[in-house]
Structure formats: structure tokens, C-alpha cells
Amino acid sequence: MSERIGFITRVQSFSACHRLHSKSLSDEENKRIFGKCNNPNGHGHNYTGELLYMIACISNAYVSCISFMHTREQVFVTYVFLVEVTVRGKIDRNTGMVMNLTDLKEYIEEAIMKPLDHKNLDLDVPYFADVVSTTENLSVFIWDSMVKLLPPGSLYEIKIYETDKNIVVYRGE
User: Which InterPro entries would you find in this protein's record (predicted)?
Assistant: First the structure.
């Protein structure tokens, strides 16, 4: 019997706020390109993510929680981001698993929750000091953080639901 390949996805949500603003653009260009997301006081998301390691699809996983974050005498509205992390690998004949989900949960805690949850991405996460904190760049940050912890070649996809209508997928390319 040939080896079987499986995908496992773990969904995680975290709250964060940010401001879309590029240092390489003028204030007027930033306002034109990013619109209300260029608000000097920032805006927020409740990010929900999915890590796919086994076949699992969650299409209505957006969480619309809103909270407030007080930072440096400003009030930032935060949202919940939904993130899906998907890993790919051979299904072990002895355990029946692609990966132990307890291990995957620990990797997500280290790579996503500790650096991002309840943070101002622009002020609290050094990566975004010189990188615009778009959801696309957030997916790259999460990919780069997860790939350091997972077995080589196992990370398949990072999917972030910024809203119920805006979804970013990144596969390390």
C-alpha cells in the first residue's frame, strides 16, 4: 500500500490592531491608498487563522468580536483575526496521524499567540517597524514564524480571515 498524505488544519483567533501606513509614501498617498485603514489612531481586527494539516475547511469562521486596547494614551479598536494553519504530511501507519495536534497547538501558541495576541502590530511587533502591517504581510510573518518550529516541508498554508469577506491565503511562495 502506498503512503497516504493528509492535511491537518487548526483554527486559532487573536485580537490585534494596526495602522496601514508606508514610510515610503507621503501622508497624502497613504490616505489615498489605505483610506480609513490609515487612521492615525489605528484600527483593529479579531484575526482567526487556520493551520491546515489534515483536510478541514471552515468557511464561516469569521469572528466579529470588538474590544478596545489602550496604548500610549490612545484608544485603539481591536478586532479578532481568524487564522487557519494547515500542515501536510504522510499519515503515520502506527499512530494514524500526520502530526500530533497537541504539538501543533503549542507551535501556534509560540508563533502566533505570544507575539501577536492583544498587540498593536505596528508598535509591539518589531517585524512591522518597517513592513506595512497588511493582512498579506501578517500571513508572511506567521508563515515565517511557524516554519521555524514545524518539521521541514510540513507547513502547507496560512489562511487569515480579516473579515467575513476579506481572506488572505499564503503558501510560502
Answer: 6-PTP_synth/QueD (IPR007115), 6-PTP_synth/QueD_sf (IPR038418), PTPS_Cys_AS (IPR022470), PTPS_His_AS (IPR022469)
Rg (CA), the chain: 17
User: Average pLDDT in the 50-68 region?
Assistant: 31
Closest of 18, 21, 6, 1 to residue 160, by C-alpha: 18
User: If one looks up domain 5-170 in CATH, what number appears?
Assistant: 3.30.479.10
How is residue 4 annotated by DSSP? P
Catalytic residue among 37, 43, 110, 136: 37
> Angle at Cα 62 formed by Cα 56 and Cα 65, nearest 5°?
140
> Does the reported pTM lie above 0.85?
no
Spatial separation of the C-alpha atoms in residues 34 and 40, rounded to whole Å: 12
Give residue limits of the domains in the chain: 5-170
Q: What does residue 56 show for φ and ψ, rounded to 5 degrees?
A: -160, 125
Is 118 considered catalytic here?
yes
Catalytic residue among 109, 118, 136, 157: 118
Annotation says 18 is catalytic: no
Mark whether 17 is an active-site residue: no
Q: Which residues pair with 75 in a beta bridge?
A: 70
